[in-house]
Amino acid sequence: MRRSLAVLVGLLLLLLLLPTGGAPASADTRPAPRAVPRLTDDHGRVLTLRGWNVEDKANRGEQALSAVTERHFRDLRAQGFGFARLLVFWDDLEPVRGRYSERYLDRIERVLDWAREYRVRVVIDAHQDVFGPAFGHRGIPEWATRTDGLPFTPHPDDWFAEYFEPAVQRAFTHLYEDADLRRAQAGMWRVLAERFEGHPAVFGYDLVNEPMGELREGEDLATAARRIEREQLTPMYNRLADAVRSVDDDSWLFVEPTPVVGEGVPTGLGRIHDPKVVYAPHFYNAAMEAGADYDPAAGWIESYEAAVTEYPRRYGVPVVVGEWGPLNSSLPNMGRFHRDALASMGRYGSGWAGYVWCYGGGYCALDESGRFRTNKELTAAPYAPAVAGVVREERWDPEREVYRLVYEARGSRPTELSLPGTGRGWRVTVSGGVRIGDLVLARPGERVDVLVNRR
Questions:
Q1: DSSP label at residue 94
Q2: Residue 403: which H helix or E strand, with range?
Q3: What is the band of 116 on the pLDDT scale with cuts at 50, 70, 90?
Q4: CA 123 – CA 134 distance, rounded (Å)
Q5: Residues 354-379: pLDDT tens digits?
Q6: What b-and-e string marks burial along 212-226, b requiring 16 or more CB atoms within 10 Å of the CB?
Q7: Which residues, 6+ apart, have CB-to-CB distance to 260 below 8 Å?
Q8: Residue 381 has pLDDT above 90, yes or no
Q9: Burial class of residue 247, CB neighbours in 10 A (0-12, 13-18, 19+)
């Protein structure tokens, strides 16, 4: 919602009346410097993105995106989330080679307009599952699918196994290596970026969802993944970055490794030559995806964290986890899983998008009535989407339901707070600054301490 000019003027006047001379944080209260950089906005504020994937995989063509409604964004905002990863499909955008669907672009824009109304930042995700419709899924169009006649056998009880079918693997190789398909993929991204560059809700673009590739004879999966990431994904991302930048020089570019990183395998991705790159791995465990409960003693989260932080440390890019969340969140250890996962992502990440914001069963965050399904409510907690300063401490205690943010103020922009349940039931105390609604203003150099707890 937009704030009036009068309100903004009032905020600035209050800022000028704030007292000066706040004591700086003592050296022993400052945490060690983060090895992984934080995401920031154009004003230098430290950003945290928390939200969910929003999708319509069931409908296509004339009905594409019809399952996504204004309610999705109204409910996201009501629970304190300000981020959505919106799935779009190349096969809907360009069903016939060289002919882009204006109807589909209009539907994407309608969704983005809802996001703008409810102040939700959106990353547009070029999604694929098992390459695309040639194999019974969504993503890369059939006209861009080349298999060299290799076989494909469906696996209805284990769709991920279809990625290892010879025809699917060869299709990825052609997408990465064939000059005309490279141009077509870049052209698709130019169309999307040109249409939505400048839309207030668009924060960035996720260039390809869960890319895979072709294993060579004698390669194990980890070796193949690192080679594919190094030799095929890295040049692809640089090509697509150039395509986007030809029409949009401002939005963030999200790049993903193969899903193999979920098994604790560091990526082989190289440098993407762009100043606004976000590393966007997914956070899934094969055993849990197959229906197993979380085993805290197995050390999976620890091994994932070690693997996933290697790339951003090396190349100095922030991390936002693009998908995470178990299929069955009601198993006995799933409450522990959510707490452990959220704590882990908070140590290195600038945010996350859970999978998926929908109403029903399976992966859905909510039931048909709009209530959180078991343990999904643990994702909704107070946080600061934007901090106008240097963060000295940020901590959420889920047991006591206490959130604390300490920062040294910088610049003239406000810090933003987000509270679940539209803020009802929370007490907010601010020292060193002035709170007005969901904003905190402070003079540069002030030490600001924000404390949020249950009433």
A1: -
A2: strand 402-409
A3: very high
A4: 26
A5: 999 999 999 999 999 999 999 999 99
A6: bbbbeeeeeebebbb
A7: 221, 222, 225
A8: yes
A9: middle
